[in-house]
Design a protein that fits this description.
The protein is built from 3 helices and no strands.
């Protein structure tokens, strides 16, 4: 058996085991650096190739009726909610509920106005045979 235990691994105190451990730790550090640099290189090349072949595109505006007024109302609602969560007293709860109600009303009205405008546009185009 010559210094090997049954599993074929050197005992922890042996000279070969300590050399192997030192070698393994130095190799691991170099491999980590090499692997990370190789990965960075691969990732950058993939991004460049995708940009050149596919390119960038602008995302479609999912809610065309959502404008600056809507953003302000939603932001006020968020702030009221944060204040209520930080200090849940009745006054802040009522303020949050009022802001939430106002935000829902504003968003609902904006969407309704947008849909009415679109329906009128479709109706006009239909009458003028501009389909």
């Amino acid at each position: 058996m010559l210094g090997l235990c049954m599993s074929g691994i050197e005992p922890p105190g042996s000279l070969k085991a300590s050399k192997f451990a030192a070698l393994a730790t130095s190799d691991e550090a170099e491999k980590d650096l090499d692997v990370n640099s190789v990965w960075d290189n691969i990732r950058d090349n993939i991004k460049i190739a995708a940009e050149q072949s596919i390119g960038y595109y602008e995302t479609k505006k999912k809610k065309p009726w959502f404008d600056e007024d809507c953003c302000m109302v939603v932001e006020r609602r968020k702030q009221a909610k944060l204040k209520f969560l930080q200090d849940p007293i009745e006054e802040k709860r009522d303020n949050y509920f009022n802001e939430r109600r106002e935000a829902s009303r504003t968003l609902r009205n904006k969407k309704r106005d947008y849909l009415k405008e679109k329906l009128n546009e479709v109706e006009t185009n239909s009458k003028n045979k501009n389909i």
